[in-house]
């Protein structure tokens, strides 16, 4: 599995743009709830990162998308699964 840290900066950029928040305000573990992110925005985020990284993530993983680090871990796992053919 790729290091989730590989994806952190791009995910931070995506979230910063979507929520119109300066990237420096987004720590890896800042809860999205604290930023005012709605569940609909989390679904949109999931869709955006799926397209960005060319992967498919099960909607059941949505509960793990609570901060930048969580999104990076989910994407890292999806990329690894895709590379292994799973």
TrEMBL record:
SUPFAM superfamilies: ACP-like. InterPro entries: ACP-like_sf (IPR036736), PP-bd_ACP (IPR009081). Transmembrane segments: none annotated. Residues 2-79 form the Carrier domain. This is Carrier domain-containing protein. It comes from Amycolatopsis bullii.
């Amino acid at each position: 599995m790729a290091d989730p840290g590989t994806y952190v900066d791009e995910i931070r950029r995506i979230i910063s743009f979507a929520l119109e928040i300066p990237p420096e305000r987004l720590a890896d573990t800042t809860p999205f709830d604290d930023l005012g992110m709605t569940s609909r925005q989390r679904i949109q985020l999931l869709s955006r990162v799926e397209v960005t990284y060319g992967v498919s993530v099960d909607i059941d993983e949505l509960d793990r998308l609570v901060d930048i680090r969580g999104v990076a871990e989910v994407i890292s796992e999806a990329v690894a699964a895709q590379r292994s053919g799973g």
